[in-house]
Amino acid sequence: xxxxxxxxxxxxxxxxxxxxxxxxxxxxxxxxxxxxxxxxxxxxxxxxxxxxxxxxxxxxxxxxxxxxxxxxxxxxxxxxxxxxxxxxxxxxxxxxxxxxxxxxxxxxxxxxxxxxxxxxxxxxxxxxxxxxxxxxxxxxxxxxxxxxxxxxxxxxxxxxxxxxxxxxxxxxxxxxxxxxxxxxxxxxxxxxxxxxxxxxxxxxxx
Length: 206
Prior knowledge:
Blueprint: H1 8-31, H2 38-64, H3 73-99, H4 108-129, H5 139-165, H6 171-204
Helix pairs in contact: 1-2, 1-3, 1-4, 2-3, 3-6, 4-5, 4-6, 5-6
């Protein structure tokens, strides 16, 4: 009797689910920001990030024993790492809020957190179609959407940074927020890079 075949496509989808969970939780933290609860919030966020890490390790463990993966082994490795990077980056934002002792929320962060959640949902839509490769009728639309959302992130990043550096905010706070806003931008970039990786896989398997 043949052994059970590990489903790499489902595993990659699960990684996107963790990033969506993390993005939704970050949006909740920022939308209902309470400095008194941030330590508990980062503990909960880290549980999501740790679950994503375990899933990535599971993928790597199975690849090490895999004879014939459904797509190029290197592509699976790259995709798993990039999808995990998204969740890691979201976790980093929550940690920065705690480490930098943020006491009130910058208004633009609400727009950024919602944008990141939309990016993560778009990447998940792409991942769900990955097993169909060039037969999917929606995957290219989702890739274009992810690129468009990342473009919105670029504009929001630029305008937010300009607001910071033209404000009368104390230099220490400007430094803290510039660092946090850069992480928001990094999350959007990671989502776009994940979409581009999947697009590359499709092209190689067309």
